[in-house]
Specification:
- This protein is an alpha+beta fold.
- It has two domains: about 60 residues; about 160 residues, Thrombin, subunit H.
- Helix content is about 35%, strand content about 25%.
- A hairpin with a 4-residue loop joins β4 and β5.
- The longest helix is centred in the first third of the chain and has 79 residues.
- The relative contact order is 0.11.
């Protein structure tokens, strides 16, 4: 029977030194960086060599064949990438086109707004043209009073109703308009300036003013004032004098240098529309119609005396 080994013998075996192999040391950081640089330099040299060979080799060489085979092999991946990217490209094109369309639409709306404003301005000028042409014809004609200058103005506030006998024009004292200046619409009397501001003036129409009038055919004179329905009444015409229907009526002008009339001589007022005589009356009943359409005036001329008023 073999005796088991003693505890001291086992301890001696366990404590006996066992020779171990030395661990393999890891490469240093400097060595790793050197290896990476060498790999990069090698790849650059290979790439330059391949490019040089590709340019110098014939079009049907082996390298071009390899390139063609590589392109053929990669073609499915290119098609797949194109198909994957196409929806995103379409979305970008849509958003970009929508933004451009909104900007273009805004520009076109602004341009359309400017064109409408220009058309309205053109229409306004076209509406003024007939009145301005009449004023110019009157100013250059022989009947224009030579002691006056004309200040042309646009009507900015016409009569609001048949019972309104005044209007506002866009010229005032800054343009030379004076109080009590006669106002015409071409060769036709409109009224007289009764209020002057620096840039506007109020004109009282002849339907609300007494005007000394004359029938140049018969030399009959009288005072003209407003009648019913917008007509004019020529008062104080003796029954023994002759006035004919259709005769023109003009401003009588000044009788005396000491008492000058506000209206110069010869401005057309209107035409005689009817003449009646009553047995019990001492004067003829003479009615007239004004030449100027006082309800639709768009431009007038203010006759300003050349000599300053005293």
């Amino acid at each position: 029977m073999v005796a088991p080994p003693s505890r001291s013998a086992r301890a001696a075996v366990l404590t006996s030194s066992v020779q171990r192999s030395k661990p393999t040391p890891y490469p240093s950081k400097a060595r790793s960086a050197l290896i990476r640089r060498a790999v990069v330099v090698g790849l650059v040299i290979v790439a330059l060599a391949l490019v040089t060979i590709s340019f110098r080799s014939p079009t049907a060489g082996a390298l071009h064949g390899i390139q063609g085979a590589g392109s053929t092999a990669l073609r499915p991946f290119q098609i797949a990438a194109t198909r994957v990217a196409q929806p995103f490209r379409d979305a970008y094109d849509y958003v970009h086109g929508l933004a451009n369309a909104k900007a273009e639409n805004k520009r076109l709306r602004e341009q359309n707004r400017n064109l409408r404003a220009r058309d309205v301005h053109t229409l306004a000028l076209a509406a003024l043209e007939p009145s301005l042409a009449r004023l110019l014809h009157f100013e250059q004609g022989r009947t224009f009073p030579r002691d006056f200058n004309a200040v042309n103005a646009a009507v900015i506030t016409p009569p609001s109703s048949p019972y309104t006998h005044s209007l506002t024009i866009d010229r005032g004292s800054s343009a030379g308009v004076r109080l009590n200046s006669p106002v015409v619409n071409g060769a036709a009397l409109v009224g007289i300036v009764t209020n002057v501001a620096p840039h506007t003036s109020v004109v009282t129409l002849l339907t609300d003013d007494n005007v000394a009038a004359l029938d140049p055919k018969t030399r009959v004179r009288g005072m003209m004032h407003t009648g019913p329905g917008g007509t004019l009444i020529l008062d104080y015409v003796p029954k023994q004098l002759k006035v004919n229907e259709g005769d023109p009526l003009v401003t009588a002008g000044t009788h005396s240098a000491r008492y000058p009339d506000l209206y110069p001589y010869g401005i057309p007022i209107g035409r005689v529309s009817s003449v009646n005589a009553m047995d019990t009356a001492n004067f003829l009943q003479v009615q007239g119609q004004p030449y100027a359409d006082l309800g639709s005036l768009v431009a007038v001329g203010v006759l300003v005396p050349k000599k300053p008023s005293r």
